[in-house]
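Input (structure):
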């Protein structure tokens, strides 16, 4: 009933920019926090950025000043603007949303991921 669909990944050169989008669809009452995570082969998945439904955000130290997370509640969509990209930003980026559904406690849903490759 709930699906998260990411878009915007691809291949970029170091110093370039990408904008990721994640749209939630289905039957639900509202969405609480939303966030972006990333994972490289052999690594654990790490939190990149999170944002509350009122717009407060937090970032992992390695992306502060370069990435910006935002959301459009009317569109049930979260974005990640990535600037000054570095090779170490390479990985599969996953979208997560805490979804509120009727007769249930808030539940986490995940997108299937979009690949970001930063290379010259």
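Output (sequence):
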């Amino acid at each position: 009933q709930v699906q998260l669909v990411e878009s915007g990944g691809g291949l970029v050169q170091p110093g370039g920019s990408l904008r990721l989008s994640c749209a939630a669809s289905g039957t639900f009452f509202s969405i609480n926090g939303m966030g972006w995570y990333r994972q490289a082969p052999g690594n654990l998945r790490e939190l990149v950025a999170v944002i509350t439904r009122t717009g407060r955000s937090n970032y992992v130290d390695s992306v502060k000043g370069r990435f910006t997370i935002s959301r459009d509640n009317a569109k049930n969509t979260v974005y990640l603007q990535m600037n000054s990209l570095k090779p170490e930003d390479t990985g599969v980026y996953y979208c997560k949303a805490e979804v509120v559904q009727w007769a249930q406690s808030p539940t986490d849903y995940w997108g299937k991921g979009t690949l970001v490759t930063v290379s010259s």
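Notes: The CA atoms of residues 32 and 54 lie 9 Å apart. The radius of gyration is 14 Å.
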